[in-house]
Amino acid sequence: MNLRAPSLIALAGLSTLALAACSGPAAGSDASAAPTAEGEPFTVVATTTQVADFTRELTDGLNVEVTQLLQPGMSAHSFEPTPADLVALGSADLVVSSGAGLEEWLDAAVSSSGYAGEVVDASADVTLSGSHEHDHGEEAHAEEGHDHTEGEEGHDHAEGEEHDHAEETTAEADEHAEGNPHTWTSPANAKLMATEIATHLEELPGIDAAAVQANADAYDAELTELDTWIAANVDAVPEADRVVVTNHDALHYYLEQYGITFVGSIMPSFDDSAEPSAAEIDALIAEIKEHDVKAIFTETQLSPQNAETIAAQTGAKVFSGDKALATDALGEPGTPTGTYVGATVHNTQMIIESWGATATDVPEVLAQQ
User: For residue 248, what is the DSSP state?
Assistant: First the structure.
C-alpha cells in the first residue's frame, strides 16, 4: 500500500494551478538538447538520476527535453513528488522509470498528474536477485558469470538472457518485484536498461529513430569499456581481499557481476531510511572483524554517523565525504559523479583503494564522462 497516495491526490489540484503559471521548461529539465528539426521538443520525464542520465545519452543531439524528478543527492526511497513534478508528468510524451519496485510513489503520482501515456520500466529485461532479508556475510555469487578471461560474455550474463514478460504469471511477477531494486549499479544491467529506454524512445512518432540507435550503440560501447576496466582492476586484487561493507545494500548487482563478497550493510533493508537495531549492529561488527574488513563505505545521500560508530569498534576506515559512494543518486552535473559512468568509475576507484590497491588509469572514453 502506498501511504503517500492521499498527499499526491491533494497535490493534483495544486498541479493545475502550477500548470497555468508555468511559462517555460519544467523544473529540472535539460534545455540544452540541440533540436534536429523545427517544432516543439519531445518531453521525457525520467524518475531517477541514473535513468535520466541514460535518457540524455540516448537523446544527445535530438530535439528532446529530459525532466529529471529526483535531483542529485536525493534518495528514491523517501522521495515525494512536488506539484511541479506532477505538472511535468502530466505533460510528458514519455515517462521513464528505473523499475524493479524502486519508485513506490510513481503509480500514485502518474494517476494524480493525469498522464495517460506509457511508463517505461527500464529494468524490464534485468534478472532480479537479492533478498529483502538482512544477511551479513552474504557472498556475491562470485561463481556466477565471473570469468573475465573469456571476454564480456563470461561476466555479462544478464545481457544474453531472454525474458518474456508477457508470459509471466502473477506469482512470478510478485517474486520478481522482491529482488534488489538497485539494478543500475552493474554495468551489465545498465546496458540492458539503456537498450530498453532506447527501444521506447524510437517508438515516439516523429523522432529520429536512427539517431537514437546510433547514440545507443555509442553508449553501449562506453559501458562495455567501463565493464572491462572494472573487471581488470577487481581481478588484480586477491579474492580474499575483495570484501565490502556499505551503509545499505545498494551495490548488490555490481558485487555480483565482479565476484566481490558483500560482508554486510548498516541499514537492515534496501531502504536507506531504515535504522539498524543494536543486535544488527553487533552482528555486523562481528562480521567485519571476522572478514578483516578494512573499510566501511557511506553513501552520498546518507550520514556517516553510524559508520563512524561501527568503525570506532572495528578499526575500519570510513569512506565518506568525497570518498563516499554514489549509489542511489548521481552527483551534481559537471562533478566526477555527475554521470552514471563517472559515478561508477568513482565507486570502483574507492573500492579498489579500500583494498589497499590503486585503480589503473581510466580509459579516455570514460574520462570524458
Answer: S
Among candidate residues 314, 343, 305, the one with its CA nearest the CA of residue 136: 314
The amino acid sitting at 55 is T
pLDDT in tens, the chain (369 residues): 343 444 444 444 444 434 433 333 333 444 334 344 457 999 999 999 999 999 999 999 999 999 999 999 888 888 999 999 999 999 999 999 999 999 999 999 999 999 999 999 999 999 999 964 444 444 444 434 444 433 343 344 333 344 343 333 333 334 435 799 999 999 999 999 999 999 999 999 999 999 999 999 999 999 999 999 999 999 999 999 999 999 989 999 999 999 999 999 998 777 767 788 999 999 999 999 999 999 999 998 788 889 999 999 999 999 999 999 999 999 999 999 999 999 999 999 999 999 999 999 999 999 876
Residue in 50, 101, 77, 135 with CA at minimum distance from that of residue 272 = 77
Return d(Cα 97, Cα 69) in angstroms, integer. 10
CA separation, residue 12 to residues 8, 77, 118, 223 (Å):
6, 21, 19, 39
193-205 core/surface letters (b: 16 or more CB in 10 A; e: else): bbbbbbbbbbebe
CA 247/CA 269 separation, integer angstroms: 10
What single string gives the DSSP state of each residue in 183-210?
GGGSHHHHHHHHHHHHHHHTTSTTS-HH
**Dihedrals phi, psi of 72, to nearest 5 degrees:** -50, 135
Cα distance between residue 49 and residue 326, in whole Å:
11
Number of C-beta neighbours around residue 364 at 10 A: 8
Longest dimension (CA), the chain: 63
The residues that bridge with 297 in the sheet, in sequence order, are 246, 319
- Side chain identity, residue 41: P
Residue 61 falls in which region: left (phi positive, over 0), alpha (psi -120 to 50) or beta: left
